[in-house]
Design a protein that fits this description.
The complex is a heterodimer. Chain A is an alpha+beta fold. Chain A is built from 4 helices and 5 strands. In chain B, helix 1 packs parallel to helix 2. Classes of the chains: A alpha+beta, B alpha/beta. Chains A and B meet through helix 1, helix 2 and helix 4 of A and helix 1, helix 2 and helix 3 of B.
């Protein structure tokens, strides 16, 4: 069984959203994903990283870091996106389609729905005042 | 990401070249809105021919323009949707409020 791992850490700035999803897509090429699989992973990672930046850290700060860890186990890819921000008070509500805490920012409330649709597994671990970790899982069978 | 706006027969065509995410959606929103009011167009047409990526920030941005134009009696259309953007349109149900066409000519013939 082939195993591999990579970790990234970057400042919670919107400029880094593209960097994070492209880096994950580049790392997963060793599993020979189809174009559709690569697109699905990129989109899900983009959603999770955007949530960390917008909701995890409401105000910009030099210490606001987002980390992305990828693990490959056999043909499965696990991506953990973590922030050390404010945390989610009600995870069930946050995961509801169309729910957004920031309608004034034109957020669609579809982030978690997209992640669920494009990945095979989604886990949310969050603690108020400590941060949120999203664990995405997907089988890449090409 | 690059945005080109042109007015065609009452439609402001917003051609986006690049990726639509939270970072770029803010810029698209501001540019499209400014150009729309400057041009005097009635409707807005998003051209996705050169969009290689869109996440749910794009959904929010498009719904935002839909609401904005509805207030002034205008419509929002989408053209040239490729496979990358298609899935997001499907999941979000955007097609229920945003008519999607293959080309600008088809948008123009809608009213005839």
């Amino acid at each position: 069984m082939f195993e591999n791992k990579m970790e990234l850490s970057f400042l919670a700035k919107s400029e880094n959203e593209a960097f994070a999803r492209v880096a994950v897509a580049a790392f997963m090429t060793q599993l020979n994903p189809t174009l559709a699989e690569a697109m699905e992973v990129k989109t899900a990672v983009s959603e999770a990283v955007t949530n960390a930046i917008i909701h995890g850290y409401e105000q910009m700060g030099p210490e606001n870091m987002v980390s992305v860890t990828c693990r490959l186990v056999g043909k499965e890819m696990f991506v953990e996106i973590a922030d050390h921000g404010r945390g989610i008070a009600d995870i069930d509500q946050a995961r509801e389609p169309l729910y957004t805490s920031k309608p004034e920012m034109e957020r669609s409330g579809m982030g978690f729905t997209v992640m669920e649709e494009f990945m095979d597994g989604l886990e949310v671990v969050s603690e108020l005042g400590r941060g949120t970790t999203i664990i995405l899982r997907k089988l890449i069978d090409g | 990401m690059d945005i080109k706006c042109t007015e065609r027969n009452g439609n402001l065509v917003v051609r986006i070249v690049g990726e639509i995410d939270h970072h770029s959606a803010d810029r698209i929103r501001h540019t499209a809105e400014r150009e729309f009011y400057n041009s005097g167009a009635k409707n807005m047409v998003f051209d996705f021919a050169h969009v290689a990526f869109m996440d749910s920030s794009g959904i929010g941005m498009i719904i935002g323009r839909y609401k904005e134009l509805k207030k002034v009696g205008g419509k929002v259309y989408a053209i040239n949707i490729g496979p990358e953007v298609n899935r997001i349109f499907d999941i979000s149900g955007l097609r229920k409020i945003i008519p999607c066409y293959a080309s600008l000519d088809e948008v123009a013939s809608e009213g005839r």
